[in-house]
Design goal:
The structure holds 2 protein chains of 2 kinds. Chain A is mainly alpha-helical. Chain A has 14 helices and no strands. Chain B is mostly helical. Chain B has one domain: MetI-like fold (Orthogonal Bundle). Chain B contains 10 helices and no strands. In chain B, 45% of the residues are buried. Classes of the chains: A mainly alpha, B mainly alpha. At the A-B interface, helix 1, helix 6, helix 7, helix 8 and helix 10 of A face helix 3, helix 4, helix 7 and helix 10 of B.
């Protein structure tokens, strides 16, 4: 329990630090939020009095620490401000895009996890055969390719040269279930391919490190069938740290999702963020950053907790 | 293996060399000319010659990747080495490294792009800022292990200081690993740098492979005709062959294997 509390504390500190950074980044911005109004070439006259009134309205005339406290107060009420472009609360704007990204990750990640684990088991079982060597090299090369390259290759092969699937994953009104699946297929496949290499490599390494343990040799010596050795002894010992590590990887792979979305014009978080960059929509961008930060911190915590609860070895050490 | 590496790295180096012979690309031709005499790789949607874009783009892409990767290796080796050598520095430096790992990099990069002018120097700094933690994490255990080695302890008991130990005893041992890390960091910077350009977060007027992909994906007609063959394929293949080549180089090199990563 003390271990869990320590973990929560660590993650909380990290979250606070990130929020402070988020706050400061915006205040350090070179352009004043009223820059557009101060430009005279539009024929507008922006007086010092008007400026003071606006600053008072947004609380920008108060000292930095007071603004900082107010910012936290708003965050705890779940208010992320209003998008400048959409003129709606940021949370409302983000929600559908976040859901789309979550769908992409969810549909891609679990098949990738399953396939990655199976291939890793195959690799370990057929160690020192061409099968293991071939799998290993393929996966290393697959992992080393940039995520946008894999996505582009899929796009060119399966949507352009052999048009089985649409080139863009944009949802249109009135699309049936089948059509939605069809448009999702390529982005999900691209994302899964980007994940499967990493999962395979991590799993293969974890399985190998367990395979050398004395208890595996003992199980073999007492005549346990080989398949049972793998399933009952090797996998059981390797799985908890492996799952924790893979959860961490999932947090780190957010970037890959962003590129896949861009290649297929998929209406997810990155599409929203990139549009917000072009419109200088600071509150919206901040919101996207906060949401992705929240997801990453949550996954980090989940990884730590998984390790703490599933692995009796760390439980004793605590 | 050597032949494969050479084949994969040749296009990039060849394009880099070619940039000294080809004129700087200007939009002075009809749009979407297919490959043919005069334009070996055709022209793009704005009438730029694709080959000269590719050649001059090699300068930006390779330059940013090389500089950012080198800076990241330098920073990472310095920070990881210090954390390994001086036990008092270990906790603060490694917490800092953890912090960088915990941040979602890409959303932060997108956020930062609002504040930074999109020029290659800023790209180098930002990429190095996000690249170094990997090297720091790889080097710290090695250096920390060396600190316990017999000959280092003897040297220390004879009065050797930290700097002397670092240059005379630790660096020569750590060198092969630093070299491998350098290739990995350059590869990361290349992928991430071209990725940023592909997302449209860098200077769109400067020739760059990522920018070429960004432009092609911004045009709806790219995939409606055969245009993608000479606007998307050349930069994508150039980048992929370079990255794969570097990966193969790393595969054949000594490296600190994280046994759990298996690679």
């Amino acid at each position: 329990m003390r271990r869990v509390l320590a973990l929560l504390g660590q993650n909380l500190a990290l979250a606070l630090l990130a929020l402070a950074l988020n706050f400061l980044l915006l205040r350090l911005a070179p352009a004043s939020p009223f820059a557009a109004l101060e430009r005279d070439d539009l024929g507008t006259v922006f007086t010092a009095e008007q400026r003071a009134r606006l600053e008072a309205h947004y609380g920008l005339d108060r000292p930095l620490w007071a603004q900082f406290l107010a910012y936290f107060g708003r965050l705890f009420q779940g208010r992320l401000g209003e998008s400048l472009y959409f003129n709606q609360p940021v949370t409302q704007v983000i929600a559908p895009y976040l859901a789309n990204t979550a769908i992409l990750v969810g549909l891609g990640f679990f098949p990738a996890l399953l396939v990655g684990l199976l291939l890793a088991l195959l690799s370990v079982a057929f160690h020192r055969t061409p099968l293991d060597g071939g799998l290993f090299t393929t996966m290393i090369l697959l992992k080393s390719l940039p995520p946008y390259f894999t996505a582009m290759a899929l796009l060119l092969l399966l949507a352009v040269l052999w048009p089985l699937f649409p080139t863009t994953a944009t949802s249109l009104p009135g699309m049936g279930f089948g059509e939605n699946l069809r448009r999702l297929f390529l982005p999900v496949l691209a994302y899964a391919l980007w994940e499967v290499g990493t999962i395979y490599l991590v799993a293969r390494g974890a399985l190998f490190s367990v395979l050398g343990s004395p208890f595996v040799a003992y199980a073999r010596a007492k005549g346990v069938p080989e398949s049972w050795v793998y399933l009952r002894h090797v996998l059981r010992a390797a799985l908890p740290p492996l799952l924790a590590r893979i959860t961490l990887l999932l947090a780190g792979s957010l970037g890959g999702v962003f590129f896949v979305e861009r290649v297929f014009a998929y209406p997810g978080l990155s599409t929203l963020a990139l549009a917000a960059v072009g419109r200088f929509d600071y509150p919206l961008l901040e919101g996207v950053f906060l949401v992705s930060l929240g997801a990453v911190l949550f996954l980090n915590l989940l990884a730590d907790l998984l390790l703490a609860f599933l692995d009796p070895r760390t439980r004793e050490a605590a | 293996m050597k032949i494969a590496i050479l084949t994969l790295l040749t296009p990039s180096l060849g394009l880099l060399a070619l940039s000294f012979f080809l004129p700087y690309p200007r939009a002075s031709f009809p749009a979407y000319l297919p490959p043919g005499p005069g334009h070996p790789l055709g022209t793009d949607d704005a009438g730029y010659d694709v080959l000269s874009l590719l050649a001059h783009g090699a300068r930006t892409t390779l330059g940013v990747g090389f500089l950012a990767g080198s800076l990241a290796t330098f920073l990472g080796a310095g920070i990881g080495g210090s954390a390994g050598l001086w036990s008092r520095l270990e906790a603060p430096l490694m917490r800092l490294t953890d912090l960088f790992f915990a941040f979602p990099r890409l959303p932060l990069l997108i956020l930062m792009s609002l504040y930074l002018r999109p020029d290659p120097l800023n790209a180098v700094l930002v990429l190095a800022l996000f690249g170094w933690p990997d090297t720091a994490r790889t080097l710290r255990p090695l250096v920390a292990g060396l600190r316990q080695a017999g000959y280092v302890r003897v040297a220390r008991s004879l009065g050797a200081g930290g700097v002397y130990l670092l240059t005379q005893h630790v660096l020569p041992q750590a060198w092969p690993l630093v070299a491998t890390q350098w290739i990995l960091e350059v590869r990361f910077a290349l992928i991430a740098g071209a990725g940023l350009a592909f997302l449209g977060l860098t200077d769109p007027t400067r020739p760059d492979w990522g920018v070429m992909l960004f432009q092609a994906f911004n045009r709806t007609e790219t995939f409606l005709g055969p245009y993608w063959i000479w606007t998307v394929l050349p930069p994508a293949l150039a980048l992929a062959s370079l990255v794969l080549g570097l990966s193969l180089v790393v595969l054949g090199r000594p490296r600190q294997l994280d046994p759990r990563l298996g690679g």
